[in-house]
């Protein structure tokens, strides 16, 4: 094993890369050891005894695996969460999910004739105003209202 520090340094300058990206053919070490000028290094680069390695990037393998697991619903427990509740889902998104489920249930109730058209409109406006917490609250309200009327 010979010391090729100066040859590696010159090759890095000639190739325009760092010293770690210079590849030296181990079978031609003796020939490379004799090189003392930049022109000698250029000739060795041309002959293929010295070359530059490709840039190594950051692997995305682990990241892709974690992303797949999250798509399956894993790695989302309390210990893995960062930030407030609203950092993960905005209040508006939360409201949209709630009101859409309530309106869907309200339409089902109207179609099944559990509520009349007038009651539907009144309940719809109440839902719009944020009266109902969720669909169960709506159902309980309708059941209690109907009981009190009867």
Automatic annotation (TrEMBL):
<dbReference type="InterPro" id="IPR000196">
    <property type="entry name" value="Ribosomal_eL19_dom"/>
</dbReference>
<dbReference type="InterPro" id="IPR015972">
    <property type="entry name" value="Ribosomal_eL19_dom1"/>
</dbReference>
<protein>
    <recommendedName>
        <fullName>Large ribosomal subunit protein eL19</fullName>
    </recommendedName>
</protein>
<dbReference type="Pfam" id="PF01280">
    <property type="entry name" value="Ribosomal_L19e"/>
</dbReference>
<comment type="similarity">
    <text>Belongs to the eukaryotic ribosomal protein eL19 family.</text>
</comment>
<keyword id="KW-0694">RNA-binding</keyword>
<comment type="function">
    <text>Binds to the 23S rRNA.</text>
</comment>
<dbReference type="GO" id="GO:0005840">
    <property type="term" value="C:ribosome"/>
</dbReference>
<feature type="domain" description="Large ribosomal subunit protein eL19">
    <location>
        <begin position="3"/>
        <end position="146"/>
    </location>
</feature>
<feature type="region of interest" description="Disordered">
    <location>
        <begin position="46"/>
        <end position="98"/>
    </location>
</feature>
<dbReference type="InterPro" id="IPR039547">
    <property type="entry name" value="Ribosomal_eL19"/>
</dbReference>
<feature type="compositionally biased region" description="Basic residues">
    <location>
        <begin position="61"/>
        <end position="87"/>
    </location>
</feature>
<dbReference type="InterPro" id="IPR023638">
    <property type="entry name" value="Ribosomal_eL19_CS"/>
</dbReference>
<dbReference type="Pfam" id="PF25476">
    <property type="entry name" value="Ribosomal_L19e_C"/>
</dbReference>
<feature type="compositionally biased region" description="Basic and acidic residues">
    <location>
        <begin position="46"/>
        <end position="59"/>
    </location>
</feature>
<dbReference type="InterPro" id="IPR057260">
    <property type="entry name" value="Ribosomal_L19e_C"/>
</dbReference>
<keyword id="KW-0699">rRNA-binding</keyword>
<dbReference type="InterPro" id="IPR035970">
    <property type="entry name" value="60S_ribosomal_eL19_sf"/>
</dbReference>
<keyword id="KW-0687">Ribonucleoprotein</keyword>
<dbReference type="InterPro" id="IPR057259">
    <property type="entry name" value="Ribosomal_L19e"/>
</dbReference>
<comment type="subunit">
    <text>Part of the 50S ribosomal subunit.</text>
</comment>
<keyword id="KW-0689">Ribosomal protein</keyword>
<feature type="compositionally biased region" description="Basic and acidic residues">
    <location>
        <begin position="88"/>
        <end position="98"/>
    </location>
</feature>
């Amino acid at each position: 094993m010979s010391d090729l520090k100066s040859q590696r340094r010159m090759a890095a300058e000639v190739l325009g890369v760092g010293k770690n990206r210079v590849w030296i053919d181990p079978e031609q070490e003796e020939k490379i050891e004799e090189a003392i000028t930049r022109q000698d290094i250029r000739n060795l680069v041309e002959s293929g005894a010295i070359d530059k390695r490709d840039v190594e990037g950051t692997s995305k393998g682990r990241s892709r695996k974690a992303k797949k697991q999250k798509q399956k619903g894993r790695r989302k427990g309390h210990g893995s969460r960062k930030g407030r509740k609203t950092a993960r889902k905005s209040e508006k998104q939360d409201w949209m999910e709630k009101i859409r489920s309530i309106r869907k249930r309200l339409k089902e109730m109207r179609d099944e004739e559990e509520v009349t058209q007038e009651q539907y409109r009144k309940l719809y406006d109440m839902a719009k105003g944020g009266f109902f917490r969720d669909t169960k609250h709506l159902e309980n309200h309708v059941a209690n209202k109907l009981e009190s009327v009867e």
